[in-house]
Amino acid sequence: MMKQDEIFMHQALQMACMGQYSARPNPLVGAVLVRNGHVIAKAFHAQAGKGHAEKELFSQYAGTMEDATLYVTLEPCSHFGRTPPCVDEIIARRIKRVVIATEDPNPKVNGKGIQRLKEAGIDVTVGVQRAEAISQNAGFFLRMLENRPFVRAKVAMSLDGKVAMHSGESQWITDVPARESGHLWRARSGALLTSCETVSKDNCQLTVRHPTLPSLLPKQIDFHPPLKVILDRTLKIPASARILQHTKVLLAVGHGLSEQKKQHFLSQLPAYHQVKIVEFPLENNHIAFGAVLQCLAELEINDVMIEAGPTLLTGLLQSKQIDELLIYIAPSLMGANTLAMQSLEFSSLSDVLRGDFSEVKTVGKDIEARMLISDWARTNNAIIKNTQEFVCSFIP
């Protein structure tokens, strides 16, 4: 029975991945209905406010379920949120057995759904491929358990570790396939974070541009761009910056900035702008990054991707506030008249910042390497590695 449970839970995890570009802020969830060793229906959660995976599955199959087993990657909800509780319909369908990969860390659920199913006389098994299910929703679990999102920093560099020429020229170090892969990582993220220095230098937009993204979205589901977050302690960013024009932007400024300066800045933006200025405390004359993460967690952001210059990356690496480095390495040598990825200073090998590679692969001519940095990520290294066969199976 255990081997069969793993096979069908594997399929449920694959189904969950179908919502990886659209389900946020909700977790990825997949469900598979099995009778006599055969799959009779399968579904996934596509978007917040839409039907949960279980609801979508029930809409596909109207037959009897009394002798069927339901496989679901996350504990069914037992409360009214954006949609009614799933456990009520599972009970009403008189399903014989429910196999759940992992408990839901949301305090509103967290075992209550499992208890309801057991009280209704349903045979419940919990923990089949739990590690894979948790890693598939690492950001959601971190938000629920530690009140912060998962932080991923993206870097594109040459083989000798350079990110730009000394003049600042950096477009393009990597080839098209690597850049397209980076855009898919953007699409999975709830927020994209950069600094005012990067915006001022590159006039970047941090948009999601990928030729096949529309085909990767569930049917009749629109893509919602990630929130843009810009660290700008004294509000130096030009009001004409392209990143401020069309999408939701959170400008993180230092505490104590005058109301007059903030209102004057906002008055220079187009009438249709979606920019919000939020003050944060300072640490060593820099915006307290932990406070920014807490704010993003309260905005239901599960995953943050940082795309910024060496100064910000160095500070966050030094303070160990990055969970994962997403590194694209081009087969090129840029030489001495260049800027390095970071200038971390250590006095001995025992002090250096170490991590674990969770995945290394070629993307076109370049290398994509994922390096786990934080204690949480490294502790769960095997868990995160196991996720790749599911997450990447739906990425071209």
TrEMBL record:
GO biological process terms on file: riboflavin biosynthetic process
Keywords: Hydrolase, Metal-binding, Multifunctional enzyme, NADP, Oxidoreductase, Riboflavin biosynthesis, Zinc
Binding site for Zn(2+): 52, 77, 86
Pfam families noted in UniProt: dCMP_cyt_deam_1, RibD_C
Residues annotated as the enzyme's active site: 54 (proton donor)
Catalytic activity field: 5-amino-6-(5-phospho-D-ribitylamino)uracil + NADP(+) = 5-amino-6-(5-phospho-D-ribosylamino)uracil + NADPH + H(+); 2,5-diamino-6-hydroxy-4-(5-phosphoribosylamino)-pyrimidine + H2O + H(+) = 5-amino-6-(5-phospho-D-ribosylamino)uracil + NH4(+)
InterPro entries listed in its UniProt record: CMP_dCMP_dom (IPR002125), Cytidine_deaminase-like (IPR016193), DHFR-like_dom_sf (IPR024072), Eubact_RibD (IPR004794), RibDG_C (IPR002734), Riboflavin_Biosynth_HTPR (IPR050765)
EC number assigned by the record: 3.5.4.26, 1.1.1.193
Cofactor, how bound (note): Binds 1 zinc ion.
Binding site for substrate: 170, 186, 206, 209, 307
Binding site for NADP(+): 156, 172, 198, 202, 309-315
Role: Converts 2,5-diamino-6-(ribosylamino)-4(3h)-pyrimidinone 5'-phosphate into 5-amino-6-(ribosylamino)-2,4(1h,3h)-pyrimidinedione 5'-phosphate.
Name of the protein: Riboflavin biosynthesis protein RibD
Native organism: Candidatus Berkiella cookevillensis
